Amino acid sequence: GDSVTQMEGPVTLSEEAFLTINCTYTATGYPSLFWYVQYPGEGLQLLLKATKADDKGSNKGFEATYRKETTSFHLEKGSVQVSDSAVYFCALRVGQGAQKLVFGQGTRLTINP
Amino acid sequence: GAVVSQHPSWVICKSGTSVKIECRSLDFQATTMFWYRQFPKQSLMLMATSNEGSKATYEQGVEKDKFLINHASLTLSTLTVTSAHPEDSSFYICSARAPGTSLNEQFFGPGTRLTVL
After folding, report:
1. Tens digit of pLDDT for each residue in B6-26?
2. Which chain B residues have any C-beta within 8 angstroms of a chain A C-beta?
3. What is the DSSP string of A63-108?
4. Which of A56, B19, B40, B109 has the fewest other C-beta atoms within 10 Å?
Protein backbone atom coordinates (compact mmCIF):
# COMPACT_ATOMS: atom_id res chain seq x y z
CA GLY A 1 0.00 0.00 0.00
CA ASP A 2 0.89 3.66 -0.09
CA SER A 3 3.21 4.84 2.67
CA VAL A 4 5.50 7.65 3.74
CA THR A 5 8.71 7.36 5.74
CA GLN A 6 10.34 10.34 7.43
CA MET A 7 13.63 10.63 9.23
CA GLU A 8 13.19 10.05 12.92
CA GLY A 9 13.41 12.96 15.25
CA PRO A 10 13.78 14.86 17.32
CA VAL A 11 16.08 17.13 15.38
CA THR A 12 17.82 19.93 17.25
CA LEU A 13 19.73 22.67 15.45
CA SER A 14 21.18 26.06 16.19
CA GLU A 15 19.72 29.17 14.65
CA GLU A 16 20.91 29.85 11.07
CA ALA A 17 21.86 26.20 10.53
CA PHE A 18 20.96 24.33 7.35
CA LEU A 19 18.00 21.98 7.67
CA THR A 20 17.19 18.77 5.85
CA ILE A 21 14.34 16.47 6.84
CA ASN A 22 14.27 13.35 4.70
CA CYS A 23 11.05 11.92 3.31
CA THR A 24 10.61 8.93 1.01
CA TYR A 25 7.42 7.40 -0.23
CA THR A 26 5.89 4.28 -1.73
CA ALA A 27 2.86 4.72 -3.97
CA THR A 28 1.03 2.66 -6.54
CA GLY A 29 0.15 5.63 -8.73
CA TYR A 30 1.50 9.12 -9.28
CA PRO A 31 1.07 10.93 -5.98
CA SER A 32 0.94 14.56 -5.04
CA LEU A 33 3.36 15.27 -2.20
CA PHE A 34 2.98 17.62 0.73
CA TRP A 35 4.76 18.98 3.75
CA TYR A 36 2.63 20.05 6.69
CA VAL A 37 3.83 21.89 9.79
CA GLN A 38 2.27 21.80 13.24
CA TYR A 39 3.23 24.59 15.61
CA PRO A 40 2.66 24.02 19.35
CA GLY A 41 -1.03 24.12 20.22
CA GLU A 42 -2.16 24.55 16.62
CA GLY A 43 -3.51 22.37 13.81
CA LEU A 44 -1.48 21.11 10.89
CA GLN A 45 -0.88 23.75 8.24
CA LEU A 46 0.07 23.11 4.64
CA LEU A 47 3.65 24.31 4.18
CA LEU A 48 4.25 23.38 0.55
CA LYS A 49 3.30 20.87 -2.09
CA ALA A 50 4.33 19.42 -5.45
CA THR A 51 2.01 17.62 -7.81
CA LYS A 52 4.35 16.06 -10.37
CA ALA A 53 7.91 14.86 -10.85
CA ASP A 54 10.63 17.55 -10.74
CA ASP A 55 8.22 20.12 -9.31
CA LYS A 56 9.66 22.22 -6.50
CA GLY A 57 7.39 23.44 -3.74
CA SER A 58 8.52 26.41 -1.70
CA ASN A 59 7.18 28.59 1.10
CA LYS A 60 8.65 30.62 3.99
CA GLY A 61 12.20 29.76 2.90
CA PHE A 62 11.49 26.02 2.87
CA GLU A 63 11.86 23.98 -0.32
CA ALA A 64 11.23 20.41 -1.41
CA THR A 65 11.68 18.83 -4.84
CA TYR A 66 9.59 15.91 -6.09
CA ARG A 67 12.16 13.26 -7.09
CA LYS A 68 10.47 10.38 -8.83
CA GLU A 69 13.69 8.47 -9.48
CA THR A 70 14.48 8.31 -5.76
CA THR A 71 10.84 8.49 -4.57
CA SER A 72 11.80 11.32 -2.27
CA PHE A 73 10.55 14.75 -1.20
CA HIS A 74 13.15 16.03 1.24
CA LEU A 75 12.44 19.29 3.06
CA GLU A 76 15.26 21.87 3.16
CA LYS A 77 15.85 25.34 4.52
CA GLY A 78 19.07 27.27 4.24
CA SER A 79 18.94 29.14 7.53
CA VAL A 80 16.50 28.12 10.25
CA GLN A 81 15.03 30.39 12.88
CA VAL A 82 13.76 29.73 16.39
CA SER A 83 10.23 30.28 15.07
CA ASP A 84 10.65 27.23 12.81
CA SER A 85 10.48 24.95 15.86
CA ALA A 86 7.53 22.65 15.17
CA VAL A 87 6.58 19.15 14.06
CA TYR A 88 6.86 18.55 10.32
CA PHE A 89 4.81 15.92 8.48
CA CYS A 90 5.41 14.60 4.99
CA ALA A 91 2.31 13.29 3.21
CA LEU A 92 1.09 11.99 -0.12
CA ARG A 93 -2.20 11.86 -1.97
CA VAL A 94 -2.76 9.44 -4.81
CA GLY A 95 -5.17 9.95 -7.66
CA GLN A 96 -6.69 13.01 -9.22
CA GLY A 97 -9.68 14.05 -7.20
CA ALA A 98 -8.72 11.70 -4.38
CA GLN A 99 -9.09 13.02 -0.89
CA LYS A 100 -7.13 10.62 1.28
CA LEU A 101 -3.82 11.82 2.69
CA VAL A 102 -1.21 9.34 3.89
CA PHE A 103 1.16 10.81 6.48
CA GLY A 104 4.63 10.07 7.71
CA GLN A 105 5.17 9.85 11.45
CA GLY A 106 6.30 13.45 11.85
CA THR A 107 9.65 14.96 12.77
CA ARG A 108 9.97 17.28 15.75
CA LEU A 109 12.35 20.15 15.06
CA THR A 110 13.78 22.35 17.80
CA ILE A 111 15.86 25.39 16.95
CA ASN A 112 18.01 26.84 19.71
CA PRO A 113 19.02 30.52 19.71
CA GLY B 1 -9.46 32.33 6.30
CA ALA B 2 -9.95 28.53 6.42
CA VAL B 3 -9.92 28.09 10.19
CA VAL B 4 -11.02 24.81 11.74
CA SER B 5 -11.73 24.46 15.44
CA GLN B 6 -12.24 21.46 17.69
CA HIS B 7 -13.99 21.18 21.00
CA PRO B 8 -13.02 20.15 23.55
CA SER B 9 -9.25 20.42 23.29
CA TRP B 10 -8.89 17.69 25.88
CA VAL B 11 -11.24 15.38 27.74
CA ILE B 12 -10.90 12.77 30.46
CA CYS B 13 -13.67 10.23 30.92
CA LYS B 14 -14.39 6.99 32.70
CA SER B 15 -14.36 3.67 30.91
CA GLY B 16 -17.75 2.81 29.46
CA THR B 17 -18.92 6.37 28.90
CA SER B 18 -19.38 8.08 25.54
CA VAL B 19 -17.54 11.20 24.45
CA LYS B 20 -18.49 13.63 21.68
CA ILE B 21 -15.90 15.74 19.87
CA GLU B 22 -16.94 18.63 17.64
CA CYS B 23 -15.17 19.90 14.54
CA ARG B 24 -16.20 23.23 13.04
CA SER B 25 -15.13 25.12 9.96
CA LEU B 26 -15.36 28.70 11.20
CA ASP B 27 -15.17 30.77 8.04
CA PHE B 28 -15.97 28.45 5.16
CA GLN B 29 -18.42 25.74 4.23
CA ALA B 30 -16.80 22.34 4.28
CA THR B 31 -18.51 19.78 2.11
CA THR B 32 -16.02 17.16 3.26
CA MET B 33 -14.58 16.55 6.70
CA PHE B 34 -12.05 13.98 7.85
CA TRP B 35 -11.29 12.38 11.20
CA TYR B 36 -7.80 11.19 12.09
CA ARG B 37 -6.30 9.44 15.06
CA GLN B 38 -2.73 9.91 16.20
CA PHE B 39 -0.83 7.78 18.69
CA PRO B 40 2.32 9.14 20.37
CA LYS B 41 5.26 9.37 17.98
CA GLN B 42 3.18 7.90 15.16
CA SER B 43 1.62 9.34 12.06
CA LEU B 44 -1.95 10.50 11.62
CA MET B 45 -4.19 7.61 10.62
CA LEU B 46 -7.35 8.42 8.70
CA MET B 47 -10.40 6.98 10.44
CA ALA B 48 -13.21 8.18 8.20
CA THR B 49 -14.30 10.66 5.57
CA SER B 50 -17.66 12.34 5.80
CA ASN B 51 -19.57 14.34 3.23
CA GLU B 52 -22.29 16.69 4.40
CA GLY B 53 -25.67 15.01 4.45
CA SER B 54 -24.46 11.48 3.76
CA LYS B 55 -23.04 8.59 5.73
CA ALA B 56 -19.37 8.58 6.59
CA THR B 57 -16.93 6.29 4.79
CA TYR B 58 -14.79 4.42 7.29
CA GLU B 59 -11.28 3.14 6.70
CA GLN B 60 -10.59 -0.55 6.98
CA GLY B 61 -10.32 -1.67 10.59
CA VAL B 62 -12.24 1.26 12.07
CA GLU B 63 -15.40 0.22 13.92
CA LYS B 64 -18.27 2.35 12.64
CA ASP B 65 -20.46 1.43 15.59
CA LYS B 66 -17.82 2.58 18.03
CA PHE B 67 -16.81 5.79 16.29
CA LEU B 68 -20.03 7.51 15.25
CA ILE B 69 -19.61 10.37 12.82
CA ASN B 70 -22.28 12.92 12.02
CA HIS B 71 -21.86 15.66 9.42
CA ALA B 72 -25.24 17.32 9.55
CA SER B 73 -24.22 20.77 8.35
CA LEU B 74 -21.59 22.36 6.15
CA THR B 75 -19.75 23.73 9.16
CA LEU B 76 -20.03 20.99 11.77
CA SER B 77 -19.00 17.37 12.10
CA THR B 78 -19.04 15.35 15.30
CA LEU B 79 -17.19 12.22 16.35
CA THR B 80 -18.71 10.23 19.20
CA VAL B 81 -16.57 7.58 20.83
CA THR B 82 -19.14 5.19 22.29
CA SER B 83 -18.45 3.07 25.37
CA ALA B 84 -14.91 4.34 25.51
CA HIS B 85 -12.13 2.16 26.87
CA PRO B 86 -8.52 2.95 27.80
CA GLU B 87 -7.28 1.71 24.41
CA ASP B 88 -9.34 4.50 22.80
CA SER B 89 -7.14 7.08 24.50
CA SER B 90 -5.52 9.02 21.70
CA PHE B 91 -5.23 12.36 19.93
CA TYR B 92 -8.14 12.91 17.53
CA ILE B 93 -7.73 15.43 14.72
CA CYS B 94 -10.27 16.63 12.20
CA SER B 95 -9.81 18.42 8.91
CA ALA B 96 -12.17 20.12 6.50
CA ARG B 97 -12.12 20.72 2.79
CA ALA B 98 -14.19 22.56 0.23
CA PRO B 99 -13.62 20.77 -3.12
CA GLY B 100 -14.13 22.86 -6.21
CA THR B 101 -13.13 26.05 -4.44
CA SER B 102 -9.88 27.75 -3.59
CA LEU B 103 -10.05 25.80 -0.33
CA ASN B 104 -9.52 22.46 -2.04
CA GLU B 105 -6.84 21.26 0.37
CA GLN B 106 -7.49 19.93 3.86
CA PHE B 107 -7.45 22.44 6.72
CA PHE B 108 -6.79 20.91 10.11
CA GLY B 109 -8.15 21.50 13.58
CA PRO B 110 -5.83 21.66 16.61
CA GLY B 111 -6.85 18.22 17.84
CA THR B 112 -8.58 16.75 20.90
CA ARG B 113 -6.72 14.64 23.42
CA LEU B 114 -8.92 11.90 24.86
CA THR B 115 -7.89 10.04 27.99
CA VAL B 116 -10.07 7.15 29.13
CA LEU B 117 -9.51 6.00 32.70
Report:
1. 999 999 999 999 999 999 999
2. 4, 6, 32, 34, 41-46, 49, 93, 95, 97, 99, 105-111
3. EEE-BTTTTB--EEESS--GGG-EEEEEEEEESTT----EE---EE
4. B40
